[in-house]
């Protein structure tokens, strides 16, 4: 499986990395055309609408990939996704006015309605996209994503340059949704057909348990990742929210470059391996190290050169991002393996266990951000500022959330050497937690030592695989 996964990953990565490079480059332009407050304005909307949008898949793509059904079942799934899209867009439209009241800004109403339309169009791409993945056409899907998202950056820059302010960010999302719907359906030659209510009910009955577990997990994960936007915007204001949101956008780029590539191809390949009577557990265990190792270069840049990177890219208005970036670099090292582990829970039909873990994790993350409310109430602004809040959240993620997922993963889901797994990941839990604290305390040499330790640990454990890669590169170079 390793060879096939890396082959698929390479094909997807070419387009994914190309697109992320375009986003990264365009951010240097939009960062000078748009202000932190304008980014914060859009974040005020998406903190609510993004939560609703998490329902647009609701686990339908996982159901399609894992199922052995065909034909009518897929058409039923498409109709079900369309119904879900209509419901979600209706909910967002109804929330437009309450959101404007909560944020004390009537200008939020119309943009929220446009986002609602975007959400509906996005649901129409869920099943065609999943069918491309199920048939292992990863490169075709990646190519569509590359062109649609790349063109959307041109739309964003053009509108921002024309003075469209926050509308440039909102309309670019609508452009991506429409173009992906057109190309996914055209590429897969998928015909939209009306099916009977009987077939629709039968499909729902077959999938309702997984729909509930996966959609609930998605909702919980959303608030785990975005509750900070709500808290920070309320306590520190639009400008600080814009700073935090832009930092998180860089973290998302890194996540899409690494976890996003493997996330799209791992489950279909593991399902194929399982169907062939093979056990994917050992290969998957190695992938957890590989993901962390691939994350290391970018995480190191975030940790040690955050301010310099931001100064070059976005200018002096965004230097506050550089203070937060090191914590997101540490978080990336543990976030990527955790995200990838979801595939194993789903493959082994442990959705209910995953839901429980996601629930506990979200409560912990929300509690860590909730400390900001206490600090604001006690007027501890000088002690508990934005950096302090991000530090606490990152520390909770490294010290508590990581073992929360990996203890059951290695003890009851996967068939691996439990002793080796426990020793290895316990050391990484301690090292990343200590690294987080050393960054907050400005212990530079301690941070360097901990990063070196984590890197050497990964290299030693994966020396066999790295040796094979080096030999392969050397062989091709000689040819």
What keywords describe this structure?
479 residues, 2 domains, mainly alpha
Describe the fold and architecture:
- The chain is mostly helical.
- The chain folds into two domains: 1-16 and 211-479, no CATH class; 34-195, no CATH class.
- The protein is built from 18 helices and no strands.
- It is globular, with a radius of gyration of 22 Å.
* Count of separate structural domains: 2
Task: Indicate the mean pLDDT.
Answer: 78
The radius of gyration computed from the alpha-carbon positions, rounded to a whole number of angstroms, is 22 Å
- Low-confidence stretches are none
DSSP E strands, number = 0
**Cα distance spanning the termini:** 26 Å
Percent range for β-strand residues: under 5%
Order of helices and strands: HHHHHHHHHHHHHHHHHH
The helix-and-strand class reads: mainly alpha
Describe the sheet with the most strands.
none
Short summary of the structure?
Helices cover 86% and strands 0% of the residues.
Layout of helices and strands:
Elements: H1 2-33, H2 36-53, H3 60-66, H4 72-102, H5 109-123, H6 126-134, H7 138-161, H8 167-188, H9 197-236, H10 238-257, H11 259-275, H12 281-314, H13 319-347, H14 351-377, H15 386-413, H16 418-440, H17 444-461, H18 463-478
Helix pairs in contact: 1-7, 1-10, 1-11, 1-12, 2-4, 2-5, 2-9, 2-10, 3-6, 4-5, 4-9, 5-8, 7-8, 9-10, 9-14, 10-13, 11-13, 12-13, 12-17, 13-15, 13-16, 14-15, 15-16, 16-17
